[in-house]
Design goal:
Elements: E1 36-38, E2 41-43, H1 46-49
Antiparallel strand pairs: 1-2
Length: 50
């Protein structure tokens, strides 16, 4: 998975070539908190996953 930070005035072109691709576009303010992911789980600390 890749992520990109974009500016509102930037033009964006997405090309998939031969493969299918999915694009998730979201907007929000940064929360400045740690993020830990494991499979479908997204939490703030490794302890929360155990």
């Amino acid at each position: 998975m890749n992520s990109v930070d974009m500016l509102a005035e930037q033009e964006v072109v997405v090309e998939s070539g031969e493969q299918d691709n999915f694009l998730l576009l979201s907007k929000g303010k940064p929360i400045s908190e740690p993020v830990v992911k494991f499979g479908p789980l997204v939490v703030n600390t490794p302890h929360e996953i155990q």
